[in-house]
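Hello Y.,

Per our agreement to keep a running log of every chain we model this quarter, I'm adding this entry. I've kept the format consistent with earlier entries: sequence first, then predicted structure.
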Amino acid sequence: MAPDEPPIRCVHHKGVVRQMKILSRSVRRAVLVGAAALLLTASACSDPDSDSGSESAASITIGMQAPINSFDPADLLEGQQAYVWSALYDTLLHIDNDGKLQPNAAESWKYSDDARTLTLKLRDKMTFSSGDTVTAAAVKATLEHTIASAGSQRGNLEAVTAVEAPDERTVVLSLSRPDSSLLISLSQGAGVIGDPKTLNTPRTTLDPVGSGPYVLDRKATVNGSRYVLQRRDDYWNADAYPFRTLTVRVIADRTALFNALLSGELDAGTVDASQARAVKGAGRQLKRVEGVAIATLDLNDRAGTLAKPLGDVRVRRAINMAFDRSKIVEKIIGGLGQPTTQIFTPQSPAFDPALDKKYPYDPAAARKLLAEAGYAAGFSLTIPATVVSQILQPTITQSLGDIGITVNWKPVPPQDSGQTKEYAVYFNMAGTTPTPRTITLKLAPDGSKNPFKYKTPELAALIDKASTVTDPEQAAGIYQQINAYVVDDAWFAPIFSISANWVTKSGIEYLGNGAGLLSSVRTFGVTG
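Predicted structure for the entry above:
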């Protein structure tokens, strides 16, 4: 919520918290676009003086809200910044717009029977933007550079103990344990390929030599403000990149982005429900993309270490039954989402629509569960209040208050809003990640989103089983078992998934459906 927005007022009506109609349009826009920022989507635009029609699609400009921190492979951040670095670097693998893992710089890959050795075969005749040939030695050097660093990508290669390059096109990774997230990581920041000649030089931070489809136009680029990239005609897969010029501008103000989109300066962008009507009336194309983020209460203290009541599954189930999810979707986010009780979206192989019926809105039944658990008089919870939580704080307070749980919100600065053992419950509104990574982050005992390191033998066995399976169909069955277990044991209290409205100008098409989660120019196409 912007600092100058009025506070949100709520009333209690028949057990349901409703946001008053006095909510300004700008408030709702801030919430939804703020969610979009968390799920790391962005706006795309063209220069105002570009030609109209199909020729104008030869260039595209994408807006992001913060400047690039670094182009060093070890320090790459996934999200909006990937619009730039994914154009400069190849990744070993690729997740397509349907969320399916595909070959990329590596034309094939194979695990050993114990899933502790991964062999990748590189594509032939790839070159860096310098003209040098991409070899297995370059892949080895980049991976070892990331592993040896303390950068943001190091954790994604934590299971890798050794990298070998037995010939120019073969890369072999030895693992300390099976890692179901590794292939996903190799399709994102941990899988880029840098030029060994420049990898450890200052140049890599600002102007890297990569093997990707674009190179930085140094004359037109202003670091921290505007990044201009030109397509390489000699790139091995140039046909997958129809835009000759890619420009990424840093535009922090989301309202300015919407106004530019409405006035016709922008080619594409994400908008909320009320804004969608305005831009559609201006002759734009509209595409709704489901499940790009999830809003949930993470009930992290499942052993009751800090908040004893959460150690009883009946209490966690009662919390799930306290929310009128359908009413919240309708009144709070203007219908731009779906009620859900699971942390996986419909695009995930773990998703099961039947699980969304697991916890119907039933305050009376919730109070009964609390009484059975020994908390008929209720109890109190302290939850950190962040910019993300503001829009739902009144609703969460009232909903849990209706079943006897008193919520105390403790404001925390943004830099302290990460999940720690200081709080038993967190509210999250975060972008979805590929299924194996979600499991690793949220469910595995050492996951960064599992601060209390909670585990059960049943779930640990399922996670271990999933990590050793390399067949996607077999893995999907195990993922569904994991999801069913987590929903039944009420590890979380998900409230709704968030949708995005993509608006595009004639000549530009948004190709994503919420399954491909890397911010890439490949999510945009050219129409005839």
